[in-house]
Amino acid sequence: MKNETSHAPLVFIVSGPSGSGKSTLVEKLLEVPGTLFSISCTTRPPRATETPGKWYDFISEAEFDRKASQGEFLEYARVFSQHRYGTPRRWLEQARQSDLDLVLEIDVQGAGQVRGKLPGAVEIFILPPSREELERRLRARGQDSPEAIARRLDRARQELQKYTEYDYLVVNDNLERAGREIQGIALASRCQRARMNDRAGKILESFGGR
Prior knowledge:
By secondary structure, the protein is of the alpha/beta class. 44% of the residues lie in helices and 20% in strands. A five-stranded parallel sheet has the order 2-7-1-8-9, with helices on both faces. Strands 4-3-6-5 form a four-stranded mixed sheet.
């Protein structure tokens, strides 16, 4: 068990534009003990560097439709009018059963859906230091055509307009510092008074008060 409290595990939502480094920062967040990563489903094919079942489960459109129709997704959306992505509900149930805090890496569309269902979720938005740096990172990956990079930059502009809907902002201009910040957000969130009230009350009772 992660702690001695009986409250429901936290859900961390991490969003940010493609190329902002959110996956790397999610890895930093998962270094915090007591966390569980939610593996998403997607209909896009795996990239050469991707291992199925690590960050994504790659499934067919028909399988995605079946899961969606049976209510198996906490959220799902179509991205760039092409492939679909979804968060299976089973990860939320597994987190609750295991008393682990759940980490979701999802886009702003998905975050909006989860926000309505899990109002207590802790939302973190990862910002690139500038448009120029984001474009440099996208080009350096060598995965997209110039047209695709232009689409990603335009989508980044749209996503950045949503940053005010998030609880925390992390600017990823220095990975070491940004990693400490996202880990600090997780640890501080666990110590919120509203979550610690019961335990603090029991400690106070041990002193003869309440």
